Amino acid sequence: MESELGAGSTTAVMVLSIALLLFLISLHLFESLLWKPERLRSKLRKQGIDGPSPSSSLFGNLSEIKNIRALTSQTKNTEDDSITHNWTSNLFPHLELWRNRYGRNFVYSSGTIQILCITEMETVKEMSLSTSLSLGKPDHLSKDRGPLLGLGILASSGPIWVHQRKIIAPQLYLDKVKGMTSLMVESTNSMLRSWETKVVNDGGQSEVNVDGDFRALSADIISKACFGSNYLEGKEIFQKLRALQVVMSKGSIGIPGFRYVPTKNNREIWKLEKEIKSKVLEVVNQRIEHSSHEQDLLQMILEGAKNLDEDNNSLNISRDKFVVDNCKNIYFAGHETTAITASWCLMLLAAHPDWQVRVRSEVLQCCQDRPINADAIKNMKMLTMVVQETLRLYPPAVFVTRQAMEDIKFKNIMIPKGMNVQIPIPIVQQDVDLWGPDAHLFNPQRFDNGILRACKNPQAYMPFGVGPRVCVGQNFAMVELKVIVSLVVSRFEFSLSPSYKHSPAFRLVVEPENGVILHLRKL
Question: Mean pLDDT across the chain, nearest whole number?
Fold first, then answer.
């Protein structure tokens, strides 16, 4: 009898435990899917900020976004081969639609993620000038984009981000970057010699799709400058990062648990993530084995990882993850964005031969048969204007994204803790009210007196981000772009191939869908 009572008591406890577990799970789901999203939106509605109602507690406005994009794609004139730079209405028509309907600041949902989209300039300005760490990077970057970004400098917040920035930023200060100029020139000249050979073999004019060459070039430069290796040694890493970027751009963010579902895309993501980690650790272990005394970025990252152990790792991240995630961030951001911008820049110069002539004339005048160096680059004003205008029309990163770590106020908006904030860079950088009636046109002359006088509000120019989270590699990127473009224009005359189709595509960055195809002729 006693044993029966004991068994019954155990069963009752088990049933009660299961019921309690199910209740807690249900409570968590109610909080994350319904209560928290509605609470955040309600706080903004009370301040006069509205947006489309989520059609689903799980998917938010994702279905509306998909339908709006499909409708835009159907109405787009596929026979129009003209080059227009107002591409946001094609890639992000939902933002344009909701901005017109709900105002310059509005809220919408990507899955369960609530996003406050800000395009009203005074609010953008306050955010741009803010140094508060109460705005960090959104959680979803290290989760939904985790295989690509992890907890590296591009996606982390708080103490770990502060630690990373102290390590990485000094390695990319302008004085150090100037010392890398000769390396950039050497790598670019090597690529251009292959172009010259191709042009000669093709009888004086050749057709080249420059995207792949620029990716390889930029990868070679970042490898040599920051990792003490060359592109061939890191080739597999770059190729797999590129494949991971393309696969991840096909997915949506904000759907709870979806990244754990073994879909075809997710299985490919997991495979690539594992392979990239293995390859990065190979490079790292080779450096450790050789006991290198190089003081490059990789060495600083390794020392930063070593300090984690010495500080009892209060940042709660493993040494390998710290090293791998930051290497992936530098590999990705350091070569992909620069390569794409170089392609867009040559496309614009090919489409505007008058500016190509002006830049070429300036480059030849500044160099006067001497090798290009940091001082010559500094004096190339026309080239700088062209690069700045390229970054205005085709910023590689589309959004400035933040998450409110605490309640924080900008202008008249109290942004509640947990709300994600998004500034769509291309919409702000092509706002006619800020940039004038030619906002959608290529006009480098607007930067004749610098960024401060290029438009009504200098904070409207943000290709490298804003505030304390501004890109640490902007000096590196600008010098590299100037080196590449100056060397190309000094050795080649180029025009757009008739086979070039202008079609910007969003693959986590904005890139030419089918590449930039040029006709090259050696000068």
Answer: 88
392 neighbors 380 (Cβ within 8 angstroms) = no
Query: What is the residue whose two structure tokens read 């590196």?
Result: 476
Token code pair at residue 285: 């272990």
Reading the block at residue 375, the tokens are 């001082």
Edge to edge, the sheet with strand 517-522 lists 206-209, 517-522, 492-496
pTM over 0.85: yes
Which sign, positive or negative, has the C-alpha torsion 347, 350, 355, 357?
Answer: positive
Give the max Cα distance, the chain. 104
Taking the C-alpha atoms of residue 176 and residue 476, their distance in angstroms, rounded to an integer, is 9
Query: For residue 263, what are its two tokens?
Result: 């879909």
| Core vs surface per residue 291-319: b (16+ CB within 10 A) or e | eeeeebbbbbbbebbeebeeeeeebebeb
Cα angle 81, 86, 91; round to 5: 90
Residues in contact with 272: Cβ distance below 8 Å, sequence separation at least 6, in sequence order? 147, 240, 243, 244, 247
CATH number corresponding to 37-522: 1.10.630.10
Cα gap 107→398, rounded to integer Å: 18
**Sign of the torsion formed by the C-alpha atoms of 136, 137, 139 and 142:** negative
- The residue behind tokens 């010559």 is 376
Q: How far is Cα 165 from Cα 304, in angstroms, rounded to an integer?
A: 10
pLDDT digits (tens, 9 = 90+) for 349-395: 999 999 999 999 999 999 887 888 989 999 999 999 999 999 999 99
- How far CA 422 is from CA of 136, 222, 279, 428, in Å, comes to 12, 29, 34, 12
Do 382 and 359 meet the contact criterion of CB atoms below 8 Å apart? yes
Distance from C-alpha of 85 to C-alpha of 237, rounded to nearest angstrom: 32
Backbone angles phi, psi at 113, to 5 degrees: -80, 125
